[in-house]
Amino acid sequence: MPDVVLYTTGWCPYCIRARRLLDGKGVAYTNIDVGENPALRAEMRARAGRNTVPQIWIGDTHVGGSDELYALERAGRLDAMLKGQEQ
Length: 87
Description:
alpha+beta, Glutaredoxin, disulfide bond, transport, 43% helix, Glutaredoxin_subgr, single chain, 4 strands, GRX_bact
């Protein structure tokens, strides 16, 4: 199973929504809170090329944000990605 990493803030509704989807699937993930840490936000910006949260990776694949995560779910592709069967 690939590692799942989320860069989030505690107050972002899109971050909460993304975590809720992953929690509902029983997915273990690393949550990196960038809310009070400029260095971690800079790390996220360097990795993603974006400044908005959440930014989500499944393995080496940058999924994007909450909307993209839910789009993968609607398309029936998220479970396979979480199992490492699709990039």
